[in-house]
């Protein structure tokens, strides 16, 4: 992948870097955050120690996925970043739709294609010197899914062969442009600017679901979308409740 071509085609002022291999692009940018001069996109052709939410691993094969992280500084208190992973999901989904691939969103940080996971988002934060917060937005997206890798993952995983045929630089530029627009809008309006858009893409709207934490069922009910803070709305026997993002997994009750 060509960093200069991606930056130019995206039309953004984001510094773009490409490395052949690293352990984790998120870990790399977190370590470098104090010295970053501005928004920075780090793309790895291969990521050997990718991380997902709640300490899970993100497995990928060289050339068969996109793995990248975007460092973006917010002059906001940490609590006002609630909903950011969901806004990022909207940005990615809208960019893919423009490329001809329709996806849906699963609360709080997954993209689904044909009911299986296509991509995940991991956001980590670090206080910036002089004030503000660096958000390190990590994305792993499957393009092709070799059978042996799917066996290692241990569940059905989506792929997007159409995206795999696209020019990688053009695809990455489209994703970066959408992310930059989204993060600028989030800075101004927070998640309330995205809640309706997220709900239109909600994979499990109206479905019976269970909220799990470390395998224990916390709540069961009907998924009713998200509110303007990015909290999941769940219609339970006792009425509507809100569920905060965190180490909570959503599973269809049928599963």
Automatic annotation (TrEMBL):
Domain of life: Bacteria
Domain BPL/LPL catalytic: 1-187
Keywords associated with the record: ATP-binding, Biotin, Ligase, Nucleotide-binding
Catalytic activity, EC: 6.3.4.15
Matching Gene3D superfamilies: 2.30.30.100, Bira Bifunctional Protein, Domain 2 (3.30.930.10)
One GO MF term: biotin--[biotin carboxyl-carrier protein] ligase activity
UniProt cross-references to InterPro entries, sorted A to Z: aa-tRNA-synth_II/BPL/LPL, Biotin_CoA_COase_ligase, BPL_C, BPL_LPL_catalytic, Transcriptional_repressor_C
Catalytic activity of the protein: biotin + L-lysyl-[protein] + ATP = N(6)-biotinyl-L-lysyl-[protein] + AMP + diphosphate + H(+)
PROSITE patterns: BPL_LPL_CATALYTIC
Pfam families: BPL_C, BPL_LplA_LipB
Enzyme class, spelled out: ligase
Stored PANTHER family: BIOTIN PROTEIN LIGASE, BIOTIN--PROTEIN LIGASE
Protein name: biotin--[biotin carboxyl-carrier protein] ligase
Organism the protein comes from: Massilia soli
């Amino acid at each position: 992948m060509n960093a200069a071509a991606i930056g130019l085609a995206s039309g953004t002022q984001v510094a773009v870097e490409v490395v052949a291999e690293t352990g984790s692009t998120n870990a790399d940018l977190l370590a470098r955050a104090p010295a970053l001069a501005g928004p920075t996109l780090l793309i790895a052709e291969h990521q050997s120690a990718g991380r997902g939410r709640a300490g899970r691993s993100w497995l990928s094969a060289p050339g068969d996925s996109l793995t990248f992280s975007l460092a973006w500084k917010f002059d906001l208190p940490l609590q006002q970043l609630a909903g950011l992973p969901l806004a990022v999901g909207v940005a990615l989904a809208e960019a893919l739709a423009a490329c001809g691939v329709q996806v849906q969103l699963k609360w709080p940080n997954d993209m689904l294609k044909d009911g299986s996971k296509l991509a995940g988002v991991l956001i980590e934060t670090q206080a910036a010197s002089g004030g503000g917060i660096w958000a390190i937005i990590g994305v792993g997206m499957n393009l092709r899914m070799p059978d042996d890798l799917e066996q290692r993952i241990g569940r059905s995983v989506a792929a997007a062969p159409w995206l795999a045929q696209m020019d990688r630089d053009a695809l990455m530029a489209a994703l970066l442009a959408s992310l930059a627009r989204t993060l600028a809008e989030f800075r101004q309006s927070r998640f309330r600017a995205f809640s309706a858009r997220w709900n239109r893409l909600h994979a499990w709207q109206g479905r019976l679901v269970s909220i799990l934490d470390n395998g224990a069922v916390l709540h069961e009910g009907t998924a009713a979308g998200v509110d303007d803070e990015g909290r999941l709305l769940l219609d339970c026997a006792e009425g509507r409740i809100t569920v905060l993002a965190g180490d909570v997994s959503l599973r269809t009750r049928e599963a």
